[in-house]
């Protein structure tokens, strides 16, 4: 009996192996065929075809995924402190989170956008906005680290941001909430006419990417929701959706939905740039932080700027127009040719598409139906190109595949709808799970989309994953869009709220990725370039420890002469010069995070010893076979003790020979 | 019992025939090296072992003091955390290194440590003894050469 059973088992095993190996015919299993799995399968050791930079929403960070696999590679800290990387905890990065309100350790990150040259993705930087305490950040794609953050003055709920023009001349930040300008103590119900909405144009230096606020256009007190640049023929223009043209200050869900149409504001930024370059605009006192991280000093500096240039739109005739657009338009998307501007009225079932050439003609022919605060309102029929009718409920955002098709998300009916530019007919629709917000096609905001996949980002997942208590993951869904019909390939969980994303072919970025920081090039104020240079220096009650790390020890690793009440700086340099050999360090009782230090980099944390004793520190990143041996001790004596400063490695003073 | 053996055989044949494309290249390289190892260990003097890497042959002239000074600085920054001249630390003491190893071997160990500790018999033995693999500090050939010059001034006593 036993033998028979074993034999049967063996036969079963063999047949299982047989059927799983090299069986080409794909039998359909439910909604997904086995060929779908192949489309997202990236074999061990192989690389993904695209990077996807997915915002973390209320986590304040930016996550880096591979597509089509959906594998998470890195969470880049941007607007929120991150203990894993010591961002906002170490002395070097604390200035990155400085603002005119002081140190702000969190923000709500929304819309990443990749830098462009000639309207195509160039893969140098990702920009992303912080909504709450308005900021724009720049992430350098050689290091995948946040290297610059600029605060936006006169702005609030920085939402219609951070989209770039086609040569990255500007990254744009638009205010969602209008506020008093200048900011002052006044009754809230005097909103109308007194609150203003600032649209901020931040110039980006073509050489080093340095950001600077070039001008702010002080618009009427509407809510500026989303924006996109013109491209190709419409390069030089920028389009912003508005809602609350009613200028309501309370119960907006009712009071801001009164008007049948709100506006898309069309801004001729080239005209305003010219005006400003010729001395136009007014310099106004202001306070905002500009924070820059340097890869040479491995440190950030924060400068408070005191002035900003304000442009009143009625002072620049021909620069600003309003395009009437039905029902509180949200998404504002421009097709790859630059001809069509899609406004998605979130309280409508229709999509409204305006034509850029019709707009230019209407301006020439002065087809205006009125004005708002001196800004001409164009005749709807004169600019309207077409409508995608009854396509779903709650349209939000549109992206393009570069083959004449557009893809729009519908929040209420939870679907992605594919439609044809020009005929405005719906070609396909696929459900999302659930309540989709933005969607992303790599390069979908440029002249050259890579129309292979669309990524839909969902606000609600409910039953899609194993439950994890009341808080469940949010997620992204990947669709193949190479055929007539979209095909759902993959669900994957995301960090925070995957608000929006930017995608790019991996080969544009990967080849520039930095591997180490060269030790000899370091200009960190407290770098220790060799063990022989390591030291401990007392300056009153401040003690500076210049420490090095290499597989698998610290130098020095025995330190004496520290006293209770001291402020002890650990300046730690990783002497490794090999790819992927970071080390970490943590000190018992230090009220901060560990440090994670890349090869050739120096980082600093502060420790306040509070108790007498001998206290250990150790390497927090499993670095080598002898990682567990990578440790050291600090002797803490009572305040005023006679124990002298002493630092050793293996009983000796540390030197090279 | 007998039946089980047959089944096993079938499975083995099957597994080897399925997905065999990549296997060949991977298995061939180490085998060759192994042969070499056996021969070399039996016959060669360490000073004849040039190691594996970009440096195949090197003729040394009189010691160049400028290079020595450059080498000393570089050694201090990039190497001295693991190597001292006078004593063993993470890696071996380096006094007299140029009397124990060929100049090519020394430079290859600096420039190509991963392959050296994987394939070169002397380097493999050192890894077994010291356990910490020689780190790649991403030096250029020129940098490795001046460090070698510095080593030439550090004779065994
Ligand atoms: Cu370590």
TrEMBL record, chain B:
GO molecular function, one term: metal ion binding
Transmembrane parts of this sequence: none
Domain Cytochrome c: start-end pairs: 66-155
Pfam family, one: Cytochrom_C
Gene3D superfamilies according to UniProt: Cytochrome c-like domain
Keyword ATP-binding applies: no
Keywords: Heme, Iron, Metal-binding
Presence of the UniProt keyword Repeat in the record: no
InterPro entries: Cyt_c-like_dom, Cyt_c-like_dom_sf
Protein's name in the database: Cytochrome C
Organism listed in the record: Lutibacter profundi
Lineage: Bacteria, Pseudomonadati, Bacteroidota, Flavobacteriia, Flavobacteriales
